[in-house]
Amino acid sequence: MNPPSGSIRHYAPFIGLRYSFSRKRNRFTSVIAMVSMLGMVIGVASLITVLSVMNGFGGELRGRILSLVPHGYVSHRDGGITGWRELAAQLGGYPGVVAVSPYISDKVLLASPTNQRGAVLTAIDPALEKTVSRIPAAMVAGSLESLDEPGFNVVLGASLARILRVAPGDFVDVTVPRLTVTPMGVFPRSKRLQVIGLFEVGAQPDGYQAYVSLATGQKLLGQRDHVDGLQVRTSDLFTAPAVMAGLAAELPPGYEVSDWSQSQGSLFRAVKMEKLMVSLLLLSVVAVAAFNIVSTLVMSVAEKRRDIAVLRTMGARASGIMIIFVAHGIGLAAVGISVGALLGTALGLNISRVTAFIENVFGVKLFDPSVYFISELPSDLQWPDVGAVVLASLLLSLLATIYPAWRATRIAPAEVLRYE
Q1: Would the pTM of this model clear 0.85, i.e. be above it?
Q2: Closest CA to 296 of 39, 32, 35, 40
Q3: Is the pLDDT of residue 7 over 50?
């Protein structure tokens, strides 16, 4: 009496897994299976590692650039803001706003005895600035509070100072886009400033940003009692857009409100898009490895024609045969995906140590801080990324097993067993 087809289907995954790890296979088929698993290991491990590094770079970029960028800005469409202290007090009482600081900013030309460079000159109140940005913590020489000392003082980015070849105590000449009318004619407005400090955040602002006190900025840029706008710090960086939108509704007409996602958002959207494109490219490696399983299963079906015919005569349905070879392919893929996920996780958690080891062994410096703004490869392993890679790999593997498994169901038992 033939066993019920449900019983055969119950054992189908077990039979498929036995085929996956059986030693009694054609040697060529075994080699193809090993290559498929190795490709899956490399693809999954590479994808997880690269995603971790991309997350690390994104975090470094966000932490370094946004450390200098306030969460939001308030300005007036007709020019500067008068009575900014009253407005700052009003903004400071809004829910979600932590601190407010004035600023004046313009593009200038800085010149030293040996070099000159375009820069962005920002006038700030040092006492209030430390409440809205992390510039004081980024100072590597001098202090931000020294800007309020008598005289015309300036704090430069470390890279900008290296370009100008100046150090604290030296002088630079600043030329601003304003004109001074004298009996001798019209001349660009310029002033000699003393460098009293350097800051370094390890990002592009180090190469173009300079700070002066609010009083110095008003004299140089002719703002008098005006400021260009107010910098706003909120309780949470990621709620800043909502807080600033609420502020815009509360302020009188004429005021313009923006947040960091508008001034810097395009940069982070580009990083996110780059991560997506790199993920798709590396996922193609996983896809190639997954579809190598097709070759393995096609040859396995050819080897197991007699077994398929016997199972069909015992009552196995086509769906049971299909499940056997789907389980066969998924078993091979699962091994590669598991090893690749473990290897990728280990690399993602220890990539900085791996790069340091390579540098020590070969005596090279992979990341020169003066060029890349980093001294080691950053990494941030996120478990949702690992889960997404594993699920995508399993899905591709499942798709790769469908055609060979369907071919197995088309084998006619009578033709195979005719000469047995």
Answers
A1: no
A2: 32
A3: no
